[in-house]
Amino acid sequence: MDYLYWKHTESGIYSVKNGYGLALEVILDNKASPKDKTRVPMEAMSFFKKILWRLPGPSKWKMLIWKIITDTLSVGAEFKKRSLNSDHLCLMCGTEDNLETIEHFFRDCDISKKIWAGSHLGIRGDIGRECSGKIWVINWLTFLVGKDSSQWCTLSFITSIWSIWCTRNDCLFQGMEVCFVKMMNHYNHVLDTAWKAWQCISTRLPAVCMWENSMDGVKMYEPVRFVGVNSSCRGLES
Fold first, then answer.
1. Claim: this prediction has a pTM higher than 0.90
2. Are 3 and 24 in contact (CB under 8 A)?
3. C-alpha span between 141 and 151 (Å, rounded)
4. Domain Reverse transcriptase zinc-binding: where (predicted)?
């Protein structure tokens, strides 16, 4: 008996999710020319999509990464492209000639470089500058997932991205000045909390752990002590 077979899935069954994913791949592939350094090959995007949603961390962290790799993150360069009345320059370094692009914001900015250097991975921001920001993120996460069985390094990388994004939003919405000590305290605190929660989730320890809709997206409850990130992203709740 003949039947319809959807060749883009192992089961051969079509779903809206798979159809949307394929359409998005085609759109992203057609948007860039073959010589465009921001172009992500369809094979690499397909593979990364499979591992992205299985990465450790809250959903909002993964959504941030998804927006980075699909060029849908609301940064100054996008505002300028759409002729919106907004600050197009980098809010963290304050340099007048630095347009807030994905590459500058997450990798090349002097403030971001300090976060990467101060993280547990000790990444140098000047390495890999020949590729676009989204490819840089994809390459690092793909490498770490393949080498990091415990997911500690992977979670540290994602936490660094989240901390940079939070610092930028503090400058934009709260008018706060950049403080490296506060940035690293936030990074270490969120990473420690997320790592404890991930250990409980992955090893099924006798504790109630969950990703929640808090400021940083992670809270953990233990029978003896509640460890979490409060609404101000500062300190532990007890």
1. no
2. no
3. 11
4. 45-116
